[in-house]
Specification:
The complex is a heterodimer of chains A (286) and B (317). Chain A is α/β, with parallel strands linked by helices and 286 residues long. Chain A has one domain (8-283): Thiamin diphosphate (ThDP)-binding fold, Pyr/PP domains (Rossmann fold), CATH 3.40.50. Chain A is built from 11 helices and 7 strands. Chain A has a 5-stranded parallel sheet, with helices on both faces. Mean pLDDT of chain A is 94; it is low at 1-9. With 317 residues, chain B is α/β, with parallel strands linked by helices. Chain B has 2 domains: 12-167, Thiamin diphosphate (ThDP)-binding fold, Pyr/PP domains (Rossmann fold); 189-315, 3-Layer(aba) Sandwich (Rossmann fold), CATH 3.40.50. In chain B, the strands form 2 sheets. In chain B, strands 2-1-3-4-6-5-10 form a 7-stranded mixed sheet, sandwiched between helices. In chain B, strands 7-9-8-11-12 form a 5-stranded mixed sheet, with helices on both faces. In chain B, 60% of the residues are buried. Classes of the chains: A alpha/beta (286), B alpha/beta (317). Chain A binds chain B through residues 66, 112-113, 120-125, 127-129, 131-140, 142-143, 164-165, 168-169, 171-172, 176, and chain B through 31, 52-53, 55, 57-58, 60, 62-63, 65-76, 93-94, 96-98, 101-102.
Chain lengths: 286, 317
Amino acid sequence: MTTSPATAADAEALLDVCKRIRRHIVEMTHAAQSGHPGGSLSSTEIFAALYFGGVARHDPANPQWDRRDRVILSKGHATPVVYATLAEAGYFSTDLIPSFRSLGTELQGHVVRNKPAGVEMSGGALGMGLSFAVGVALGHQLNGLPDDEGQTFVVVGDGELNEGQNWEAIMSASHFGLHRITAILDRNHFQNDGPGDEIMRIDPVGDKWAAFGWGVQHVDGHDVEAVRDALLAARARCDAPQVVICETVKGRGVSFMAENPAGWHGKGPSDEQLAQALREIEAGLS
Amino acid sequence: MTTTSAPPPAATREAYGPALVKLADAGYDIVALDADLSASTGGNKLAGSYPERWFTVGAAEANMISIAAGLASTGKTVYAASFAVFMPGHCFDQIRVHIAQQRMNVKLIASHGGISVGEDGASAQAIEDLALMTSLPGMNVVVPCDAVEADAMICRAAEDQEPWYIRLGRPKLPIVYTDGPSFQLGKADQLRDGNDITLIACGLMVEPTLRAADTLAAEGIAARVLNMATLKPLDEATIIQAADETGAIVCAEEHNVIGGLGSAVARTLALHRPTPMEQVGINDTFGQSGPWTALLEEYGLTTESVVTAAKRAMARK
């Protein structure tokens, strides 16, 4: 495990992996003609930082390594970003990606634990990931893991915070004094039915989290180095659970998705849209 | 099963706390969770000997279930306890996705099942929990008839890595298994022989059903009695054999007649051996406040109801 500062080459590599992840996201949702591209594109830098920025300790050759960090997708519909990242990290062949959502595939529409290896938790019913992480952290504490091992990173959606179970979990993480939990909020401001501020306002979300006893950081969720640095800082804290609030754009990287995020929560692009999306991703437009 | 001095009555829930301590003493890597009802479930007894192995999450059952799944993912055998109205009532989705779909090593201890909760009334009386739990693929669902069987189930559950739902009760009941338990997951226990009719019961209806068999015997009717302590996986072979050998069936349970033991047996019979069958249970209505014994009378969960149902079923042969 390295926590050394990023070099210029590292930064370039991170930007490159973000592009590859985004390509997989639009390609697999195009192939399936369904899935959730918008909330996957908004989480891209988060996953790139976790798996390629030296944040999460993990081993693609030994997915069940008992001292690994756990990366948990609580917003369980954002499978495209998870599968894209795990394939790029070497957990399985990128050849599998086009099978996304097809009959018999391991790449299920919503996350299923251990399908493929590397997926830590079944989800899709929103609001459960933080509670699961509390259980993991308690287990690691009972198992006597050293403080700097067995961190749990939970990627949470902002619409998902409507679910009350999140707040039960947030309350219990600080009550139990758990420091191995880092929540990562993909604050993309849109949920299934439209803008979060209209559907159910969650601000001031950072103040709420702080009031529950968590350490809070705010970052630009599309600045992959900033995300990485914030996650590394959170991982190093041993006094309280941490949340990194990532300000993001739903559909980031593909103009027609970012301009109409409510329209791209849960559908795949057409052939023409795919071609445009791939051009824009390659050009690094947002 | 005859002893000179009967053991004192005990609630099935009373088996839970001591069983936890016994399992921890024996070296099982267990962790137990409660949701602010630990004195009633008895889960807090583990904290006396193993304080680091017991957690209460407050009145937050959904959180408790997902925490249980997370703990299980780190190798623990997890027991999670609450009342049957709240678990699964408050947390069916968490049980469905995090326990059943993930096939987690979590044992759900649902105390205060059925209307025998008594005075607390309808909101506190779980009459639908077995329907919910048996509908989940891979969930083992068991209902003990006495504290001896409850202890055997709670300990047996620690032997595998599977999810279990163990439904316990509030009132003190007579001990059926005075000579020790004979619980086997997925196997009915034949408590009485007989070839005129089969009475199938679970939970607190087992003892009244044995008395119903006595009443029927006095009238010359030899009733077979099965304790169907496992609702899932259901012992279909024994049910089919009973249908073949006795030709009439009565099911008795402390649950809605829809979705519990009677429904499961009826499905088996309809698919394999269409056979006259009658049900004793809560007739698709919610309960109310009252002493638990009065509630059993009010809703027809009695020896007399089983006898009457048996005669109805036999008349249909």
